[in-house]
Structures are given as structure tokens and as C-alpha cells.
Amino acid sequence: MACSKIFSGDLPELINEIIQYFQNDTSTLHSCILVNRLWCRLAIPLLWEDPFSIPITKNYHFIEIYLHSLNESDKTKLNEYGIDSNLLFPSSTLFNYPSFIKCLNTYKIIYSIEKWVAIVRNLKTDVQPAIYNLLQNFKSSIKLIYKSLFKIFIENEVDLYTFEVILLASKDHDYFNNVCGLILQNTNFIRNIKNLKLVIFGRNVTLSKIDTFLSLLSSNCKSISTLHFQFNRNEEIFKNFSSHIIKTQQNLKTISFDSPLFHHLLLPLKNYNCSNTLKTVIFYHIDFKNILILKEVFEQLNVLESVHILYCISLNSVFIQQIINITKPFKLRSLFVSGGFQIESFQLLLQKSGDYLENIGFESFTSNEFKQKFLEQITKFCSKIKFFKLNGFDNRAIYPSFDLIKNIGQNLNYLTINFENYYYYFNHLNENHIKLSSTILQELGQILPFKLEYLNLTLIFNISDFELFLNNSQNTFIKKLLIKNKVKESEEILFYIKEYIMKNRRVKYLAFEDEKGRDLACLRDEVMEFKLYDIKIQNYNSLYIQVCDFIKEMY
């Protein structure tokens, strides 16, 4: 009876809960639109919360739907740039789509506009004008559309949840400076944001408007829960802003620091508000060489639940001693290494924090001798590893990796073994590399847990070894399986994937890329064949997990 009520539409609140569950599954949400009017009304707002981030290849037509509401004056300006609003824009829309926007990333907005304008111009221009004029018109049209979109969102009084300001190149600064005035005049646009990301680079750009914008953020945004900083200039305006915005937050739960990390950015964490709200701290590509206040800061954080160190450097005895001296538990959840450090000091760190560690990994250029010792210590002190990423390896690293996987057992959920980077960074392809890939395929299948959320293998696939791996891992269900083959025989590999994985429905999502970079997701007939077995073929890069994104999503 309950099911019949749900699917008949008698309980819209339950249907809404169901559809909310598919918030990040765009294909399922598109299917929900076709069920009935109620499902459509519930699914459409979710699809339009952040359309600039949806990875739809060559489909930027949502911009036309937004620009439908432009006034005639702005439409006339677009016509002057070769964009025919009468031909491209819909005459009417079923929903007020701009009102649904929740997330804005300035870099993604520019990228989407550039792609859309390029497509439109190519469709409409038979004879290309002079390169200089094309570039001038192109940039002018981007600038107009960029400002128009912000104007449309502001006029619709959107309730913005996430705002990511990414200013890397001079054009990013130029476009954003052009909309700063709009934002400054309409402070409600940013008043309720919960997630704020600021990445501001550039040495030959004016910061006057950025300064005013940062002041506005500091004085108007009091309910930020997630904050991400990355400034490449040790300017006074950034010092004042970072200090003030951290101190004024009432509910800051997560803060992420990206390189470079300046001393003054950490000091505001000692503020009373942060000490009783901050739960997660992420350090990404940070050089800790001159950071000597870690103990002082972390002693003040009373509810801290996780610390994540991602590809940082200067993890030397000075750094580790600061951590060891902290009287409170140091809940180090993630440690991804881009270089080496003293194993003796590292052992002391694991003795303090090893019970908390859940995610580990290496960059390719980390020495295999260090990897070996590192993995031996991890196996000794850490039994709760869920995420293991091994980039580049030789025999010294691979056998300790097997021991770690065995020791972790069923706790392991995410595993990446990537031969490719070792091949590119350290050597040319030789017999030893082929043997190493064979060793992995021969051994790995029989030590995997019964269930994995994610398995990513980039190897030199020998057919007989690959079949052995598939046979040995038949009892393992893998939600997301990624395979990248670095030599020929990809057609035979696909045959065995179908025989052992597709027909037995052993995965939910599959990505496969061959030695020439050809993606299975581009082969329509293959995609449809796997779909018959309820397996979704996805683009390799789309399914690939970036460590930093994973940490931010999980914590």
C-alpha cells in the first residue's frame, strides 16, 4: 500500500525524499522528469541547482534558457556580436530556471560561456573575420553574457548556497571586476552562502574592487560552514580579510588551506567561535617549513574530528614534533605524500594518530624505498584504511601494498593502482614493467574485499593475467570500476570484461580507456549493450576520483 501511494503521487513529501536521494545522479533525475508532473516539478530544481558543473559534453544550451529573460537592449548587443537571440533563445520557458540556482563557480561560468559562444559562432559564421576582430568580439560577448547572467540571478533573488570565486588569469579578474558593482549593490545575493571558496592569483592585476568585495563578504556573511582559501600574494587585504571572516563566523565547520599557507591564516582559528564549531581542517599542497604554531592552534580546537594532509611538503621532524606535543588527540584521517620524510619521526606520528588514519596515498615521484618503509609502518599501526592510492611502484612497494590490503581486509573501500605515472616519470616501457603488472593481476584478485566502492587499475594488461584476476575476484562486487590499458589487446580485454563482469552484473559503473586514449563511453552500441545488464558506462575522467574532491565530499 505504501509503495502504491508513493508511485501514485499521493504522498509528495515521500516522493520528494526519494528524488532528493538522486540529487547528484543527473541521468536518473532526467528520467524522473518523464514520470508525471509532480515528479517533474520536484526534479527540475535539482537539475538546475548547478548546471555549470554538470559534465554534459558539448551541451551548453542551458545558457540560452537563462538568457531568454534578457531585456531587449542586451539582446540587441548580443546580436551585434553575431549571436541571434531570436533564433537561439526560446520564446517561453516552463519554469523560472534562474531561480533554482544554488551554486556558482566563476571559472566554470566563464568556461561554459566560452564554449557556448564558440559553438554558436561556428554555427552561424560561414566566413571567418580577421583573427583580431574575432578575438575582440569574442571577449566582449563573453563579458556581456557573464555580467548578464549575474544580473539575472540577482534579479531573481536566488538563495545562493555555494559561491566559488576563482580568479587565476587576468581575464578572470577583468570579468569579475565587471560584476563586482552588481554584487555590492545587492548584498542579499551572498548573504546566506554556506560554502565559500576563494582562489585569487595574479601579480599584474588591480585588487581595488577585490578588496571591496572581500570587505563585503566579511561584513555580510555570518553563516559560512565551509571555507576554502588560496591566495598567492601575501597582501595586507588578504591578511585582514582571512582574519576577519574566520572570526565572524558562527558555524564554521570545515576550513581548507591551499598553497601557499601564510602564518597569519592559521592564527584566527584560535578564535572562540572556531574552537567550538570547527570539525575539519584540510591542508593541500602546503609547505610547512615556516609554520611553527600548529600546537598552539590545534590545542584550541575542542570539537575537531578530522585533519587531512594532502601532498604537503616539509613534513620533517620539526613538523611532526609539533603534532606529537599536542595534548589532545590529533585525528589525522588522511595522509597523501608527495615526497619523503624521516621514517623514525613518522613512526611517532603514527603512534599518536594511526588509529584515526583512513586515507593514504603517494605521488609517483615518491621514492619506492620510502614507499616500502611507509607501507610497512602503516600496516603495523593502521587497521582502518578505507582509501588507498598507489601511484607508481616497483617490487619494493607492491609487496608491502599486498600486505596492507590483506591487513585492512573488509575496511578497504577505495583502491587505485596506477602504473602509468611510474612509466612516464621514471623510465621507458621494459620487461620489468610488464612483469610487475602481471604480478599485480595474478595476486590482487584473491585478496580484495567482498565489496569495493571504487577500483581503478592502470596497468599493462596481459590477457591471461587479466582473466585470472577476473576469475579470482568473482566474489567481489565493485560499484565503480575503472580500467586503463597501456598496451594493445584492448578488444580482447573488453571481451573478458563482458564475460566476467557484464554478464554477472558485478559492477554498477564502468569506465574503460584503451592505449590510444579511446573511451568506451564514446561507443554508443557498447554503452547500450552494458545498459541491458544495468551497468552504466561513464567517461573515464568523469568517474576518476580526485583526492581533494573525495575528502571534501566525505568529510
TrEMBL record:
Designated name of the protein: F-box domain-containing protein
What organism is recorded for this protein?
Glomus cerebriforme
